[in-house]
Amino acid sequence: MKIIKSSTKESNHLWMVLCFGVLGALFIVISVVSYRQIANEREWKSYDCLTSCDNIPLPVFSVPEGIYGQPFELEINAPSGCDIYYTTDGSTPTVRSRKYQKRITVDPNTNLNRDMMYIATSLVWYPPMGRQSHSTVIRARCFRAGVGYGKVKNVVYSAPDIGQHLGFHIVHILIEPDSLFSPTKGIYVLGEKYYSKKAMVEINQQPSSQDWIYYPANYHQRGPKWTRPATLILMDISGKTLFEQNINLCINGMGSRAFAEKSLRIMPDNKSDTVIRHPFFDELPDSTYKRLLLRNSGNDVLYTLFQDALVHRLANGTGVDLQAYTPSVLYINGNYWGIHNIREKQEENYLAAKYDVPLQDISIVNYFEYFANHYTMNYGPESSLQSFEQLLSFIRQNSLADQTAYHAACTQIDVDNFIEYMILQTFFANLDWPGNNVRFYRFGRQTESMQQNGIDAGKWRWLFYDLDNSMNEPDINTFERLRNEYAHNPVTQIFFGFMENAGFKEKFIGRYKYLVKNQLTSEKMLEQINIFEVRYRQEIERQIARWREPRGIRYWRQSIEDMKDFAQKRPEIILEQIKYL
Question: N or C: which end of the chain has fewer CB within 10 A?
Answer without folding.
Answer: N
